[in-house]
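We modelled the chain as a single entity of 131 amino acids. Its sequence is:
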Amino acid sequence: MMTENTRTGLNRKNNVPTTEQREATQPALLRVELGEVLRAYRQRQGRTLREVSSDARVSLGYLSEVERGQKEASSELLSSICRALNVPLSQVLRLAADRVDIHEGRIPAHMRIPDAIPEEMVRREYAKMGR
């Protein structure tokens, strides 16, 4: 696991900017956000790069570069990686888009709290109560 040095803003393991520093100084890049989402899924499953690269039929080095946000993955490659991880491509894209929204200071649509209760929801609730 990476160790971040808050004093220098660098990751001690490989001297890269911390997440906070990157977010403060660089524009959101979809390839970086996609890579972080893919890596998180792989790690949550307890799988190695080698296992996923084999299942996805992509080289280990290329998958590593995709996860680190250094390579733009084609839609075909993303689909193959998602199949290997047994995760819907749409879910990975949605999570990456949410991360871009947050990075750019916006709240993702599904996380917004409405200003008022939608009329249809009110009608449904009244119908359930028999009114």
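As a brief sanity check on the tokenised model: The first helix runs from residue 19 to 25. The two ends are 56 Å apart (CA to CA).
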